Amino acid sequence: MALGKTAAGRRGWRDYAINLAIRALIGTAMLVPYRFRVPMAGWIVSRLVAPLAGYSARVKENLAYTCPDLPETEVKRLMRAVPDNAGRTLIEIYSGAGFTKRFANAPLTGPGVAALEEAHAQKRPVILVTGHFGNYDAPRAALIAKGFNVGALYREMNNGYFNDHYVAAISKIGTPVFPRGRRGLSALLKFLRAGNMGGFLIDQYMRDGASLTFFGKPAPTALSAAELALKYDALVVPTYGIRQANGLDFEVICEAPIPHSTPAEMTQALNDSLEALVRQNMDQWFWIHRRWKPEQEEWRQSLFGR
Fold this sequence. Notes:
Layout: E1 5-6, E2 9-10, H1 13-29, H2 34-53, H3 55-66, H4 72-93, H5 97-100, E3 108-109, H6 112-122, E4 126-130, H7 138-145, E5 150-154, H8 160-173, E6 177-179, H9 182-193, E7 197-201, E8 213-214, E9 217-218, H10 224-232, E10 235-243, E11 250-254, H11 263-280, H12 297-304
């Protein structure tokens, strides 16, 4: 067993032990029928994992920073509901056909649907942008079910052992998938230039990203999706999978394409699109993320200046 960090993440003894624990939880959940498996995973993560791992505290911290006027009762609800959605999302991704078959007849909604169909017919590249909201793989599953060719750029997990089976799991939802980095980006560009669709997640803290805002706070954001759209004349469509009241199904919304302008203006529009939807569904965004790092902002500005 190799120690240290490789291109596919760390592979030390601690990482191996953590991976075994995660695999055991996932394996146990997979023995349960899908309609019970998903809420069970949500309960385990929200009631057991989140308090121990500090996720509940992170949710509270992020809400205090961005939404200080939120009632305490709502904060407490979100401290449970956000990890619940995260647990559901994780087991859904590992459920393969159990997850994807729910989209066989699911409608695509929103003003962006016609634009996607036109781009598909014209073999025009499309960049689909979403966030860690609802289930971020629901739009990909739904579009693939409708016959669109959709690839996705993903961030490799820090734990190399976990990364191996995570990539296998997202590949069962649909291929191709491309790891973030020079090699993966090169393959994704080739895929896009052939007139296909590529999916991007936009809501992670990027230390060298542009100084944009999310929930009115500084949130450094990568401009890569907008830059690629301008370079290859690709359509940019915000696309989201909103979890429905039964906790199992999704409405997939394709918003109107973002007009081409500058990378910063387009990316801020994407941030604003996601924020508007999160404000309507506060429990469906991944408030566990360290999306904002105010303690690093002065240092970051001095280093990157943007």
